[in-house]
Amino acid sequence: MTAAGQDGRRRGFGPRTAAVAVVLVTVVTALWLRSPSPPGPAATVAATVVPADGSRLATGPTEVRLRLAGTPDTDEAHVSLTPADGPQVPTGASRRDGTDLVVSVPALPQGSYTVAYHVWLTDGRQSTGRSVFAVGAAPLLPPAAVVPETGHQHVGTDPLDGLLLVLDLVLLIALSVILLRRPRVVTDPEDPPAR
User: Please, are residues 143 and 131 in contact by the beta-carbon 8 Å criterion?
Assistant: First the structure.
C-alpha cells in the first residue's frame, strides 16, 4: 500500500519497485528452469558394444554399435573413439537402428582403441561406459590407459527454444517499459480541472 509523505510523493510499492521485482523473479525462474542438473539420479542400463570389449580384429570396423535396452536419444548420445597413441578419431553422426546406436568410423590402422560412451535413452535412463578393442597385432590396452583429450559436446539451443527466448525477452522489455512509464499526476479531487 502506498502512502503520501510530507512532500506529497508516494512512498512504498510503486511501478519501479514492481518492475525490479518482475525482472528479479523472471531471472531467478529462468535460471532455475534452465538448470542442467536432473531432478534426481537417472537409472542406468548396460550396453553391449560391437566390436566387443577385449576383441582383436584383423581389419578395422566401419562402425561402432551400442546395443541398448531402450531407444537411444541421438541428440544426447556421445561416443568417442581414441587410439592408444594419438588424438580422438573423428566419427560420423550418431544414428538410431532400432534400439541400437550406430556411429560410423573411418578406416582404422593397426592399434588399440577405446570406445567411450554416454547415451541418454528416450525414457530418461542412461548408459555410460568404455570398451577396448585392437586392430591387427597391436597389444590390447586396458580402458584406463586411454584418456580422451577432449570432453563431449551437448547440442545447443534448438530453433524453437531460441524463438521462445527471444519472445520472452521482447515481453520482458515491453512489461518493463509499461511499468517504468512516468505515472500520471493525480490531482486533488477538490480542485476543479484546468481548462
Answer: yes
How far is Cα 195 from Cα 193, in angstroms, rounded to an integer? 6
Q: Is 58 helix (H, G, I), strand (E, B) or coil?
A: coil
DSSP string, 134-195: EETT-----GGG---SS--------HHHHHHHHHHHHHHHHHHHHHHSPPPPPPPTTSPPP-
Residues 6+ apart with CB under 8 A from 79: 64, 66, 91, 94, 101, 103, 115, 116, 117, 119
Q: Which three cell numbers stand for residue 5?
A: 509523505
- The DSSP bridge partners found for residue 17 are none
Q: What single letter denotes the amino acid at residue 154?
A: H
**pLDDT tens for each residue of 4-32:** 555 555 555 677 777 777 778 788 777 76
Strand 3-4, strand 48-50: pairing? unpaired
Verdict on whether the full-model pTM lies above 0.70: no
